[in-house]
Amino acid sequence: MTYKVYLSGEIHTSWREEIIQGCHEKNLPIEFLSAVTNHEASDAAGDLLGEEEKQFNRDNKSAKVNTIRIQTMIQQSDMAIIRFGDKYKQWNAAFDAGYCAALNKPYITLHDESIIHPLKEVDANSRAWATTTQQVIKILAYSTK
């Protein structure tokens, strides 16, 4: 069986590549799915429907277009890894965690100890909380045995 793992969250570090590479090195039967990780392209997704004068309207259209991909991939996945960085607030990742919870889709959170408190509800619904990509890889290796 090949697992489908959705990678959600922070886009400014190499955590996705580290997990993908680590799982590849262990020959784990995993296919990875992800949202668009190019910040500018994601922000401009709604521009496909025409330009907007107000930022709210542009952001709203872009969020809706991005949701087509994100919700479809989460639904198709077996589990999700949801990364929260310390520099930016990833409200979209928190929404992805809530969507996973609503679907009873298992997810693992990945973040450091400095943001435990603001993520307490997100972590409470996760199957595991990891602080490093190596921990995530170990969990995925165990889960795919």
Q: Could you list the spans in which at least 5 consecutive residues all have pLDDT below 50? A: none
Our count of domains comes out at 1
First-to-last CA distance = 10 Å
The first-level CATH class is given as: Alpha Beta
Any idea what the radius of gyration is?
A: 16 Å
Mean pLDDT: 95
Tally the beta strands: 5
User: What is the CATH topology assignment?
Assistant: Rossmann fold
Structural class: alpha/beta
The helix tally amounts to: 6
Strand content: 15-25%
| Overall spatial form | globular
How would you sum up this structure in a few lines?
The chain is an alpha/beta fold. It has helices at 15-25, 39-43, 55-76, 91-102, 120-125, 133-143; strands at 3-9, 30-34, 79-83, 107-110, 128-130.
Describe it.
The protein starts with a strand and ends with a helix. Strand 1 (3-9), helix 1 and strand 2 (30-34) form a beta-alpha-beta unit. 26% of the residues are buried. It has a single domain (3-143), classed as Rossmann fold (3-Layer(aba) Sandwich). Strands 2-1-3-4-5 form a five-stranded parallel sheet, sandwiched between helices. With 145 residues, it is of the alpha/beta class. It contains six helices and five strands. The chain is globular.
Please write out the topology.
Elements: E1 3-9, H1 15-25, E2 30-34, H2 39-43, H3 55-76, E3 79-83, H4 91-102, E4 107-110, H5 120-125, E5 128-130, H6 133-143
Parallel strand pairs: 1-2, 1-3, 3-4, 4-5
Helix pairs in contact: 1-6
